Records
---
Amino acid sequence: MSRMPASLQTSTKPISIVILDDDKALLDSLTYCVSEIGYKIVPFDENDMLFEFFERHNTADVLILDIVGDPSQNGLNVLEELEEKYGENIPRILISSGLPYKNYSGHPALKKAPFVHFLQKPYNIEQFVNAIDILTLQKKSHKRSFY
């Protein structure tokens, strides 16, 4: 297996990242790439498993929701449920979708989330890693950032 280029290996401490994606191949790819640069990854392909994880651990630095357009497992509904249960103690959020952000910008969950970064598909791995870096470096304030 090839390693990620040194220029993308930016993490110096273990940061836990939870990924929710219903596309198993993409989930595997994202998990591999992000773990190669030093992040601790916890991948899920079903909402129920993600909620069970938060019930048990209630901890993660970043939550990546890559299923925003899927009606049966909509990432924004997942975000809304996490906000109801944990308030502002939810992780920083990376949302990825093939549809533009304007399609989601009015969703109540996005207005409440303390840290949100939107990444437009298709994206390359460098954009993905940069988005994670942005989220892991942000101070505790209501921020929105986009690619």
Note: Residues 24-36 form the longest helix (13 residues).
---
Amino acid sequence: MQTAPPRDLGNEPVSLAKLKEVVRRLLPPGSPTRSVIISEKDALPVPEALAKFEVFDRLLASELGP
């Protein structure tokens, strides 16, 4: 049985659709955090998404609390 070669996930896009959906539901329209996240492209390369998720996490924690 042959196994598939490992994929390089660094070039796979990461969808922000679900995150944007949650942000629209939880944050008010005037929220700067909401504006920043909603303004992002709908899909990002893995390295870029990881870097931005770290920032998004901090912004959401400061706005929504622990």
Note: The mean pLDDT is 90.
---
Amino acid sequence: MILRSFALVLFCLTFASVAHAQTRAGIFKDYTEMRSAMDDAMTSADITTALLRFDAGVTSAGETLDVQAKFDQLFPKGLPNTALVRRDVYDNGFSRELLVYWNGTKYLWVSILLHDRRTELVAIEFSANTDYDKVAGEF
């Protein structure tokens, strides 16, 4: 039940917005900085940082705390393992990645739509779910 609730909350937090340069949410210097931000948040069990850094449409502190509490229940030791499962490269600097983070037999699937503008990397869309089909369906 907790797993389904968490999957639903994360699925609902999927966003599709252009990040604003003044806040820098969703905007990174390069791919290395973006992956470091995501990997650090997931391996340290800090979903709040990922939601804020990737501008995942979180509207309140209470909403953030709720998601973090569910994440902590599902992944109390964080997600120390990570892999790039799929990367689709499109024209004009656009790409989409499917990442997986896991601990034991518990997995979190992450999809990120990226735009490399040569001077910065923009994470246009971010979604995460414990249900592979919900995230993989974006490809």
Note: Residues 11-23 have pLDDT under 50 and may be disordered.
